[in-house]
Amino acid sequence: MKFTLSWLKEHLDTQADLEAIVLGLTRVGLEVEGVENPADKLAGFTVARVLTAERHPQADKLQVLSVDTGSQTLQVVCGAPNARAGLVGVLGLPGAKVPANGMELKVSAIRGIESNGMMCSTRELELGEDHDGIIELPEDAPVGTPFPDYAGLNDPVIDVSITPNRQDCMGVRGIARDLAAAGLGTLKPLLGTEEQPGEGAAPHIRIEDAEGCPAFYAQAVRGLTNGESPDWMRRALTAVGQKPISALVDITNYVSIDLGRPLHVYDAGKLSGGLVARKAQGGEQVLALNGRTYTLTPAMTVIADDAGVHDIAGIMGGEHSGVSAETTDVIIECAFFDPDTIARTGQALSLTSDARSRFERGVDPAFLDEGLAIATMLVQHICGGTASPVTRAGTPPLGTRSYAYDPALAGTLGGLPVAAERQRAILESLGFAVSDDWQVTPPTWRRDVDGPADLVEEVIRIEGIDKVAPVPLPRAPGVARPTATPEQKLERRVRRAAAARGLDEAVTWSFLPEAQADAFGGGAWSLANPISEDLRVMRPSLLPGLLAAAERNLRRGAGAVRLFEIGRRYLAEGERPTLALVLAGDRRSRGWREGKAAPFDAYDAKAEALALLAAAGAPVDNLQVMGQAGAAFHPGQSGTLRLGPKTVLATFGAVHPSTLKAFDLDGAVAAVELYLDALPARRGSGFARPAFAPPALQAVRRDFAFLVPADLAADALVRAVRGADKAAITGARVFDVFAKGGETSMAVEVVLQPGEKAFVEAELKAVADKVVAAAARLGAALRG
Amino acid sequence: MTDDLDTMREHMLTAIAAATGLEALEACRVSALGKQGSVTALLKTLGGMSPEQRLVEGPRIQGLREAVSTAIAERKAALEAAALEARLASERLDMTLPVEAVPAGTVHPVSQVMDELAEIFADLGFSVATGPEIETDWHNFTALNIPASHPARAMHDTFYLQQGIDAKARGEADEKTTFSLLRTHTSPVQIRTMLKDKPPIRIIAPGRTYRSDSDATHTPMFHQVEGLVIDKGITLGHLKWTLETFLKAYFERDDIVLRLRPSYFPFTEPSAEVDVGYTWTRGKRVIGGSGDAPGGGWMEVLGSGMVHPKVIAACGLDPAEWQGFAFGCGIDRLAMLKYGMDDLRAFFDGDIRWLKHYGFAALDVPTLSGGVGAA
User: What residues bind Mg(2+), as annotated (chain A) (predicted)?
Assistant: First the structure.
C-alpha cells in the first residue's frame, strides 16, 4: 500500500516529520517497506527562462541560449527545435543527474561553445514520453524555483506492507487513525459524508443473492463529462503507481486508496433495465476490464442487467458498461460483498484486483452511505452532472460484538502492564467503545478483532512492544534429560559417520520429474500445482536427486563424487526416514603407488552400507545378503541387507546402466539406500556394560580351500562352515577366491576358540572333518 | 708366561678390531674361544696346575677370555650397526612423493545449524519434535485459525497434492481433511504436539517446508524451525527473553539487539515480527548492535507471538488455563547470516565444491562446552 506524505496529511493533522512517521508506522505494525521521494532524483533541476537564443556558429541544429536561473545567467547549448527566447522551461544544472540515463551534467564545450547545463524534455526527466522538444512551462512559472517543488513532486511516497487482518489500513485514512492513536497527530474530520438531496429517478437495483451481496447501494449522476481528472488527483494517483485513466475511473481508484472503499461506476447508457446482484449462471461469460473473458459458475456473485453480466461482483467490472469519454450518465455502485465468496471467486478465476483484496478482507460495513456520498460529491465536483436520490437494497451486516476485557491481561498475556485508563484511551482512539465495566466493542472497520487477546495486541502495539521487558523462562526442575528422540539421535550418528567416511552431505529437492520417480518404483504423491514439471512428484527414493547431483558434479569436472543425503521418502503409507548415498567417478584416482584409476563398484556400496549400519548400531554380523534391490540397480551386482528374511535394512549395488543413461551418467556408479526406520531400536538397559571376560586361551586358526560349484554364494559357504561346530568355531571368513577353467576355488579361514583347555590334535581333526562335511553338503570339495 | 698372555691379548684384540666383516670376526672367535682356540687351550691348562699356581694364573686366563669375548661382542654390534646403516641407506625413498588422501566428508550447513539449534534449546529445556511434511489442511491451516477462505491462505502459496491422505493408514483420527498439501510452515507440529502431549510443553520442530515460490531469495523447498511453549503464566516477556537468549547463543554475541514489530499471524495474538540489528562491515552484513546505529540496519529473522486461544482450544486444551508462545524461523537464512552464504539456491544443488566450502567436518559436533558454532 503506497501513499504520499501529503495524502496522509489530508487525514492527519501532525507536526511529525517524515522520519518520525516512518518509525511510528513500523512501531504500530504497519511495516514500512520503502520511502522514496521523487524529488530526490530531480535535484539540481530548476525552473529557468530563456533570455536569448542564437544560432550555434559551428552547428546548424544547435542554438546557444542565455538562460536566467533566478540567481544568474548561464550559457547553455541546446538542440531542441522549440528552444526560443522567452520560453520558461527546466534547466539541469552542472552536477545534476539526468533521471532517464543517469548521466551527470558537467560544464562542457559543445562544438567549441561552453555549455553550463541542459534544458530538458519530459522524457529525460522520466515524467512522460514526450521528446520532441524541451518542456514548456507557463509564462508565469517562478524562475529559480527548484523544479520538483514547482511540479509538486517533492512529496515522499511511503510504501507499507499491510497484513491481511488490517483491511482498514488499505485506505490512507485507516493508517492516519493508527498514527493518531500512537500520538503522532490528530485525525481530521471526514468531509462530504452527508447525503445531498437528489434529483430525477433513483436507479433501479435489487438483490437476489443476499448471501453474496448483503447490501447494494447506488446513485445515478446524469449529464456529466468524463474528461481528465484534476492535476492534484492525477499527481496523487501517479505518485502511488496508479495510472490516471479518466476522471470517473480515477475517482473510484482515489476513493479506494483514500478510504479503502471500492466502488464501481457503470455507464448507464449501456445498461438495459435495472441492476441485480445475483448468482452467476453456470457457463455465463463476461469480458472484464482487463480485456480477458471469464467463464463464471453459480458459486459466484455478479451484478447484471437484463442483457447480461456487467461486474464480477467486488472483483472486476465488465468492459461493456465501462465508462468512456462519451459517457454522460452513470450509476455509482457502493456495495458490501461477502468476503468468503469474493475470496473463493477470486481464487477460482485466478483474478486479483485492488477491489478483491479489499472486499475479501472485509470492508467497513457501516461506511456504505458515507462512501457513496463522497464518491458522488467528487463526481459532481469534477465531472458535473446531477445526482439522483440513493437507492438502497439490503442491509450491510454490522455484526456488532463486544468482549468482556480484563485490563490485567496486558500484563499477564502481553507482558506489559499498562494502566487501565491508558488502555481505555488507546482503545477509544482506535475507535473501540469501552464501557465503564470494560465491555469493549470493536469498531465496524475492525472485523479482525475477535476476543480479549486481540485487545491486548491493540494495547501493546500502540503502547510500544519495545517496552515489553524480557523475562527468563523458569528452568524445569530436576536433572536435564536428553531432549532428542532415539530417531533423531540415530540420524545424527549416521550423518556424522557418513561424513567421517568421506561422504559429503547434500540436500536435494523432495520433488522429482515424473520419469525419475517412475524409474524408482513410482511416486505415490504428486503436486496438483507444481512450480514446474521437474518438481512434480514427491520422491519415492532419495537416489534420483543424488544421481542428478552426481551428474552435475562430474560435468563440472569432479574426479570423485561421494554424496549422501538424509531425508524422507514419500510413500503411500507415509514418510520414511532414509539415508541414501551415491559413489560416482573414481574411487581411487590414478597414482604412482596405486596405478590406474579404479571406478566404484558394488562392493564399495556394500562396504558403505555395512559401515553405516554398524554406526547405527545394527547387528551387522547377523544380516543376510539377499537380492531384489529393485529395477534401478544392476540385476547381478546388487542386493539387500536384511535382518531376518523380511526386514530390509538397506539396498546396495551398482546402478543399472539404463538408470545411468537416464541421468546422463557415464561410467559405473554405486549406490546405497538405508532405511533408518527399519533398524531395530537400541535396547535401553542402562549405562553399565557386561563384565569384560576375554578368553583365557589363544584362538587357533585353520585354513581350508574348497572347490565350489559356480553358483555357490560365499555367504552360504561361510554360514555352513560356521555352523559345523558352533561350540568351537567362533569365526570364519573367505580370504581368497579365484576362478579358473570353469572351477571356483574359495579359501576360508576358520577361527577355533578353546575353552578351559587347549585343543588336542584329535579335537582339531574332528572339527576339521565337520567343516569339510558341512561344505560337502553344499557341493564344495576340499582341494587336495 | 706373563709376557705370553699380554702378547696374546694384544694380538687378539688387534685382530678383532681389524675384522671388517662378521665372517672375519667369527674366525677370530674360533681361533681364540673355539674348541681348538688358543684361549680355550689355556683354560684347559688350569686343570693341570697346582692350587697355588691356579690361584695366580686362573684370574689372568679368565681375564683374557673375558676381554676377548667382550671385544668380539662389541665389534659384532658395531659391524651389525654399520651393516644396518648401510642397508637403510640403500632403502632411501623420496618422501616428497604424494600419498593417497583419505577423502574428508562434510555435514550440510542445514544439518549443522539444526544440531546447533537443538543444542541451544536443549539448554532451555526444549525437546525436538517432528511431524509429516505431507499434511492435512486441518493441521496446516484450520487448526491454526486459518479457515478456508482466509486471505492468509493466499499468502502461503501452497502446494496441493493430487492424492488424499488416508488418516487411518497413518494411524490418525479423521481430521476433516479436505485437502492434502505440503506443509507451508512447521507450525502444524505445534498442533500435533499439543494434541499428543500434556502441557507444560517446550519444543522446537525443525524441518522441510514448501511454498510455491521461486526467485533469487526463495526456493520452493526450504527449512524452518518452530518453537512452542505452553505453560501457565507465560507472557510476551518470556517470548522476548527466549528469542534474545536463542539468538545471542546462536551468533555467540552478547550485543545482539532485537526489534519486535507488531504483526499478524492468524495463529498468534499478539503477534510480532522480530528484526535483528546489523552493521555493515567491509561490505558485509554483520549481525550485532542496534539497527538504529549509524551504518546499521534491521533484518527480519523470525515471526512470533502468543499462541491464539482458538489454537489452544482446537487442540483440546483450555485457553483459560494454558497459554504460551510460538515462533518460526528460517533455518537456511539463519545459516546464511552466520556462515556467510549468499545464494539460497546453492543449498540444494549438491555441488561438492560448495559442500566442501560451506560444509562442516564430521567431528564439528555443536556442543555447549565447545561452542555451538564451528569456525
Answer: 448, 454, 457-458
Helices B2-18 and B38-45 cross at an angle (nearest 10°) of 150
Same domain (yes/no): A183, A215:
no
pLDDT in tens, B209-231: 999 988 878 899 999 999 999 99
Same domain, A237 and A322: yes
Residues of A in contact with B170 (CB under 8 A): 573-574
Contact call for B263 and A31, based on CB within 8 A: yes
The answer as to whether A428 is a domain residue is yes
B155 to chain A: which residues are within 8 Å by CB? 164
Name, in order, each residue with C-beta under 8 angstroms of B138's C-beta and a sequence gap of 6 or more.
Answer: B175, B176, B177, B178
Average pLDDT, chain B: 90
Instruction: Report yes or no: B250 and B227 within 8 Å, Cβ to Cβ.
Output: no
pLDDT for the residue numbered A258: 97
How do residues B294-339 score in pLDDT, each as one tens digit? 889 999 999 999 999 999 999 999 999 999 999 999 999 999 999 9
Measured CA to CA, the distance from residue B112 to residue B110 in angstroms comes to 5
Q: Is 70 exceeded by the pLDDT of residue B154?
A: no
Q: Are residues A372 and A290 in the same domain?
A: yes
Query: What CATH number does the domain containing A280 carry?
Result: 3.50.40.10
- Number of C-beta neighbours around residue B284 at 10 A: 10
CATH of the domain at A455: 3.30.56.10
Instruction: Using alpha carbons, select from A259, A160, A169 the residue that is nearest to residue A447.
Output: A169
* CB spacing of A591 vs B221 below 8 angstroms: no
A35 forms beta bridges with A158
Query: Has residue A400 got a pLDDT over 90?
Result: no
Q: Indicate whether A498 belongs to any domain.
A: yes
A412 and A449 inside one domain: yes
Per-residue pLDDT tens over the stretch A295-350? 999 999 999 999 999 999 999 999 999 999 999 999 999 999 999 999 899 989 99
Contact A164 B155 (CB under 8 A): yes
Find chain B residues with C-beta within 8 A of A552's C-beta: 349-351
Q: Are A77 and A211 in the same domain?
A: no
Closest C-alpha among A370, A366, A317, A314 to residue A342: A314
Chain A residue with minimal CA distance to B125?
A476
Residue B1 has pLDDT above 60, yes or no: no
Domain count of chain A?
A: 6
Cβ contacts of A574 on chain B, cutoff 8 Å: 132, 169-170
Q: Are A696 and A760 within 8 A, CB to CB?
A: no
Q: Do B237 and A535 touch (CB under 8 A)?
A: no
> Does the structure show a pLDDT above 60 at A498?
yes
**Backbone torsions φ then ψ of A441, nearest 5 degrees:** -110, 120
**Structure confidence by residue, pLDDT tens digits, B75-128:** 999 999 999 999 999 999 999 999 888 899 999 999 999 999 999 999 999 999
Domain limits for position A348? 205-394
Q: Are residues A49 and A19 in the same domain?
A: no
The tens digit of pLDDT for each residue in A372-395 reads: 999 999 999 999 999 999 999 999
Domain stop point among A360, A394, A428: A394
- Does the pLDDT at position B175 exceed 60? no
Alpha-carbon A755 to chain mean position: 69
Q: Which of the residues B236, B239, B355, B367 would you substitute to probe the A interface, choosing the one with the greatest number of A C-beta atoms within 10 Å?
A: B236
Q: How confident is the model at residue B172 (pLDDT cuts 50, 70, 90)?
A: low
A530-575 per-position pLDDT tens digit: 999 999 999 999 999 999 999 999 999 999 999 999 999 999 989 9
Please give the single-letter amino acid code of residue A554. L
A chain contacts of residue B363, beta-carbon cutoff 8 Å: 496, 500
| Residue A695 forms part of a structural domain | no
Q: Are A80 and A91 in contact (CB under 8 A)?
A: no
Inter-chain CB proximity A553 and B352 less than 8 Å = yes
Look at residues A394, A420, A436 and tell me which one is the last residue of a structural domain.
Answer: A394
